[in-house]
Amino acid sequence: MNKQTDAFAGCHPVVNLMYFLIVLLFTMFVSHPVLLAISFLGAAAYAIRLKGWRKVIKFNILVTLPAMILVALINPAFNHYGVTTLFYLKTGPVTLEAIVYGVVLSSMLFIAVLWFSCYNEVMTTDKFVYLFGRIIPSLSLVLSMVFRFVPRFGEQLKVIRNGQKAVGRDMSNAHFLRKIKYGITLFSILVTWALENAIDTSDSMTARGYGLKGRTAFSVFHFDRRDGILSALLLALTEVCFGGFFSGDVFAQYDPKIIIGGFPLTAHSILVYLAWGVICFFPFLFGVWEDAVFYRLKARANRERKIPWYMTDPVRQKEGEADELY
Predict the structure, then answer these.
(1) 167-188, pLDDT tens digit by residue?
(2) CB neighbours (10 Å) of residue 19?
(3) Pairwise CA distance, residues 28 & 47, whole Å
(4) Whole-prediction pTM
(5) Distance between CA atoms of 197 and 240, rounded to whole angstroms?
(6) b/e sequence 227-249, b meaning 16+ C-beta within 10 Å
(7) Which of 101, 122, 284, 325 is spaced 20 to 30 Å from 197 by Cα?
(8) Per DSSP, which regions of 48-166 are E strands?
(9) How many CB atoms lie within 10 A of CB 69?
(10) 25-74 tens-digit pLDDT
(11) Rounded to an integer, what distance in angstroms lies between the CA atom of residue 284 and that of residue 273?
(12) Cα torsion at 294, 278, 107, 113 (round to 10°)?
């Protein structure tokens, strides 16, 4: 699935930004295990829809998973809160509460990175400039350049590395010291390229009058009825989640004892979990629903192509029915 054909990515930038703010804030500040599990499943489903399961698994295993394991190990080794001591290290006692909270912290980091990968696919540069170009033009330009250069760094690094291979500076076949030398050269070329692109982009936007008072700009984004309905739905579901947070249904404590709210299950806690599940799976389900509608219309169009044109004309159909009567 390409981001250009994704239904949620085709919504208004205000809806996209509001959605990612909701899921990221709840994921980073609410440490309830059930909510984190739902957030992970929703982020993984949407990331796989946008980028494919191969890229998602490769990125998470190579980048995110090592950082997650590192955080999970560091927290109980240096933080000794909790009352359930398991064993002792030179740094102090290792408690069950510290281990569990370390796993929770690493999970929050893992899920947040997964949501940010979806954000980078959906919130393109033109959307960001559209939202903040008139409010904070300088900061909007800088941030849009940063968001644009980050995914392009990997592509440009491959181009530079292929060029270095062509002149005999291949890092894969060199010894350790030469690898360091070639790596420094690659990094220097990459930084120079990034700075030159930043200067060119800045000069280009200045020449076009970006940030000047009274300057108009063309935009393809229009806030329609669908965007209004989606925004109202997201705000209503968020209000339900906030209600569960303040009522203690999604409360979680790991110091000095582990206390998880919402258990045993009540009607209100189930409602909160369902509301949060709809929020997290909303882009994925919305895209699946749009795809189902598209394929149904496509199948209908294919069926109608096989029918003679005079059979699709209401007047001819009535004449045909009248002929059949006589």
Answers:
(1) 777 776 667 787 788 888 888 8
(2) 23
(3) 18
(4) 0.72
(5) 45
(6) beebbeebeebbebbeebbeeeb
(7) 122
(8) 85-89, 92-95
(9) 14
(10) 999 888 888 899 999 999 999 999 988 888 888 777 677 777 778 877 88
(11) 17
(12) 40
